[in-house]
Give the backbone structure.
Amino acid sequence: MRRFLVCGLALVGAVFSQSVDTYVSTEGPIAKSGMLANIGPNGSKAAGASPGVVVASPSTTNPDYWYTWIRDSSLVFKALIDQYTVGIDRTSSLRNLIDEFVTAETYIQQVSNPSGTVSTGGLGEPKFNVNETAFTGSWGRPQRDGPALRATAMITYANWLIANGNTSWVTNTLWPVIELDLNYVADNWNQSTFDLWEEISSSSFFTTAVQHRALRQGITLANAIGQTSVTSLWSAQAPNVLCFLQSYWNPTSAYVTANTGGGRSGIDSNTVLASIHTFDPLAGCDATTFQPCSDKALSNLKVYVDSFRSIYTINSGIASSAAVATGRYPEDVYQGGNPWYLCTAAVAEQLYDALQVWSSQGSLSITSISLPFFQQFSSGVATGTYASSTSTYSTLTSAIKTFADGFIAIDQMYTPTNGGLAEQFSRSNGAPLSAVDLTWSYAGMLTAFEARNNTQFASWGASGLTVPSACQSYSGPTVTVTFNVYATTVYGENIYLTGSVAALENWSPTSALLLSSADYPTWSITVDLPANTNIEYKYIRIYNGAVTWESDPNMSITTPASGTYTENDTWR
Ligand SMILES: *[C@@H]1O[C@H](CO)[C@@H](O)[C@H](O)[C@H]1NC(C)=O
Ligand SMILES: *[C@@H]1O[C@H](CO)[C@@H](O)[C@H](O)[C@H]1NC(C)=O
Ligand SMILES: *[C@@H]1O[C@H](CO)[C@@H](O)[C@H](O)[C@H]1NC(C)=O
Ligand SMILES: *[C@@H]1O[C@H](CO)[C@@H](O)[C@H](O)[C@H]1NC(C)=O
Ligand SMILES: *[C@@H]1O[C@H](CO)[C@@H](O)[C@H](O)[C@H]1NC(C)=O
Ligand SMILES: *[C@@H]1O[C@H](CO)[C@@H](O)[C@H](O)[C@H]1NC(C)=O
Ligand SMILES: *[C@@H]1O[C@H](CO)[C@@H](O)[C@H](O)[C@H]1NC(C)=O
């Protein structure tokens, strides 16, 4: 099969796409049932999981994915909710499953976990046990994409319910969950997060992009159901998130840098997944939201795909303008650092989305940024706008369709005969590797197939947004806290405060905050601290430059959500 691809690519476009058609028709139903099999309690591979809980994979060792991730679950249910709402699957069994997902997530939101309680950061917890209890082992936390993706899935369902006369269910059942998630997003979008691969703690393009989308949709939903009293912070922050999103673009190398930290190239499937999961069919080729057909997203796609051409043995010998297997990022070593089914399918999906928009707008545009992408298909092509009546348009779109199908054909080539989709396939021989039956692999394949057959999903309001001229940062809500400490001192000795947050000078004895002795022997200070946050602190004495810390353990307070707080201590 590979030899055939290598030697005969130019000749086999038609044959190739026929075989992709065959794969879509056989693998589509397998992908759908593969998703359902991993959802508790009755999914055939999810026995023991609570109702509506998505198990990431039935694999329990090397790797152990017998957990439910908020990200994976929300992406899987977004795909199922899309199927229900557009009418691909309008069955009562799917409706019941969606309602069980809502019930499960409503419960999980309230489960206290190592990231906090529902009101002190717990919504950033990435994964839970499949019986809906907290996972307490060490992990890359928080991961702040989960609440945004969950809100987007539920808002998609909510919009359909409203259009079908069931607004009360939205207001009473969905809205409280959505509101908690979006308050979390609005409060925390400007805090560091682990990326979607759970490896790097910094800021991450995928996370920022899905947060932006969720806030915009939430504001629209709030307006539709008269819940506008809570959205002023969302409305104030959404433009700041969009502004920050622009900063990931690397103009020199013409790709999106996936993470602000991590010390890698930043070339990462993160950015392709962000483009397809924030696709808005009514937003044209808008580059500020990195729409799939935007010049920036296409340039980024080329850089991303090309980064895998020479590093995987299975890609060797493939022409430089033909599809190859792609993985998470070129530096990846996890489980051997192989191609992923869902990453390869995501490339196809971005291209199918782009073809859908060019077709509906009746033209495509080539800018200096996207020129190298288009030159892969026609080396002499120039910048400009090409109407669908031109031969340039026909040549390019038909080559891009073949290119897109090529990525599906790669996944097809390395899909075992039973159609099961693991997480990865070997970079050296294409054999399936790592977790079997990865729920997200199935969902990623299904959404690529839907994009291929032009299924139209709902717009989320990406059209016509303006990026503010200056980006504002946001440190989150604060509360006013007074610290009183009873401490007798000698003349010339003073009491200071320092602790675990910037407002308390991050444990620095040299810049600690001086307390007032106006009510001696009670020393006092009033400071603004992050709301809803567990903060550790200690008082220190300084006398003639000599620092004396209070004895252990560290003191701690959990600040309230709003208002003021007074802490009364005695020097230890
Ligand atoms: C799971 O199966 C049991 C037994 O057939 C049934 O009572 C229950 O309603 C099913 N649950 C779901 C969520 O479909
Ligand atoms: C839930 O699952 C965890 C992990 O498997 C297990 O340790 C715990 O005992 C379970 N709790 C309940 C209430 O079943
Ligand atoms: C509204 O949707 C919920 C959730 O599926 C359902 O239980 C309820 O019966 C619906 N109500 C109406 C009036 O359709
Ligand atoms: C917060 O936002 C500012 C302004 O966009 C940005 O420069 C900074 O990197 C952001 N920090 C984080 C952690 O998101
Ligand atoms: C489009 O593709 C999806 C996924 O394969 C499938 O479920 C759906 O029925 C297809 N729709 C049409 C109109 O072919
Ligand atoms: C108090 O906090 C500091 C800074 O995080 C830490 O180094 C120290 O170990 C803590 N002390 C105790 C007793 O936990
Ligand atoms: C500290 O003392 C003040 C005044 O006596 C009181 O209002 C406040 O509730 C006390 N704080 C706590 C946490 O007990």
Notes: Residues 478-570 form a domain with the Immunoglobulin-like fold (CATH 2.60.40.10).
